[in-house]
Design a protein that fits this description.
The protein has helices at residues 2-11, 19-32, 42-47, 51-57, 101-104, 112-128, 173-185, 201-206, 218-231, 267-276, 309-321, and strands at residues 36-40, 65-71, 82-86, 88-92, 134-143, 155-157, 163-165, 191-196, 211-214, 235-237, 257-258, 285-289, 295-296, 303-304. The chain contains 11 helices and 14 strands. It has a single domain, classed as 3-Layer(aba) Sandwich (Aminopeptidase), CATH 3.40.630.10. Strands 1, 2, 3, 4, 5, 8, 9, 10 and 12 form a 9-stranded mixed β-sheet that branches. By secondary structure, it is α/β, with parallel strands linked by helices. The longest helix is centred in the middle third of the chain and has 17 residues, at 112-128. The protein starts with a helix and ends with a helix. One of its GO terms (biological process) is proteolysis. Keywords: Aminopeptidase, Hydrolase, Protease.
Length: 322
């Protein structure tokens, strides 16, 4: 049932699952799971300086949102929770760095990471009952080229206080995820797992049926691999390539990082390096790139698989057993 839930959400078209509709579904599902749910609006995002998420949603008439779900204390996620972060781009046109027509069709599936987190929480609750403090952070927006859209070259400030130069507005997911990861880490989680349809180059490296695992923490990487084997989902680790970190440095005023490495190679690795800048080095963290296996087929014929739901649910079970 949980895999079916993920498929239904991912296969919904962009006019059927807008950011507002998606957050309404998250509220409904969260209530069914007995989770606390908070939907953070644009005023809250501005107050908490989430300039990355706001920038990506700025070209759409649909407002950006940050959805939080957790099991634990009512007043907020507990320190030491397991944090799950899922990319929720309900449609990705590329923004002002506009995709071609063929590449744009099927981009309603770019919220697969957020749907996978939500469905994994459902699967875990159905089999084990909550029994574990879990904090899900889901940044949700449409990436459209409206009159107020973020421009290539603009500098945005993330909630971590790190300025980011937006070299390419089609590299939007990592900017949204940066704010979500930094926010999740405020509660000093015991582990952070993020999941996203982030880079085409993960497909180049591993093909369309294998998910990529990248992260600094070898123990957590091994846990994900083991959970994937038990769930019968295929994952493969890619290296934590710190030697490429300089590709992310920006010389723009007010910016430390840029969202584009300036090269056509290694982009799955530099995407993970970018995300890692927003996770403290003493927090176990792993990034899962499901750009390939989240869907089967392409364009108008793309259909969601629900890949990743069973692995993440099994991973939560492993944490709960400790």
């Amino acid at each position: 049932m949980s895999v079916t839930l993920a498929r239904q959400l991912i296969d919904a078209r962009a006019n059927q699952l807008t950011p507002i509709v998606f957050t309404e579904r998250i509220q409904q599902i969260g209530a069914q799971l007995g989770a606390h749910v908070r939907i953070r609006d644009e005023a809250w995002l501005r107050e908490h300086r989430m300039g990355g998420l706001l920038a990506i949603g700025s070209g759409s008439a649909q407002p950006a949102r940050l959805a939080e779900l957790w099991w634990g204390p009512e007043d907020g996620p507990a320190e030491g929770s397991v944090a799950l972060v899922g990319k929720g781009v309900t449609f990705d046109s590329g923004g002002l760095s506009l995709k071609g027509t063929a590449a744009m069709v099927g981009m309603h599936t770019d919220m697969a990471g957020a749907a996978t987190v939500l469905a994994a929480m459902s699967a875990f609750a159905a089999s084990d009952g909550p029994g574990l403090d879990v904090h899900a952070v889901l940044p949700i927006a449409e990436n459209l080229p409206g009159p107020t859209a973020v421009r290539p070259g603009d500098v945005v400030e993330t909630c971590a206080g790190i300025g980011v130069e937006v070299v390419d507005t089609d590299f939007e997911g990592r900017i949204m995820m940066a704010d979500a990861l930094a926010h999740a880490c405020r509660r000093r989680p015991r582990a952070v797992i993020d999941i996203a349809t982030l880079t085409y180059q993960s497909i180049v490296a591993l093909g369309p049926e294998i998910g990529a695992i990248i992260g600094r923490d070898p123990g957590l990487r091994a846990e994900v691999e083991g959970a994937g084997r038990d769930a019968k989902e295929s994952w493969w680790p890619l290296p934590w390539a710190a030697q490429y970190r300089d590709q992310l440095r920006s010389s723009a005023p007010g910016a430390t990082l840029r969202n584009h490495p300036g090269t056509d190679t290694g982009r799955a690795l530099t995407a993970a390096l970018f995300l890692g800048e927003f996770v403290p080095t003493d927090v176990p963290w792993v990034h899962l790139d499901i750009a390939g296996p989240a869907v089967r087929g392409s364009g108008a014929d793309a259909h969601a698989t629900g890949f990743g739901v069973l692995t993440m649910a099994e991973l939560l079970r492993r944490f709960a057993r400790r």
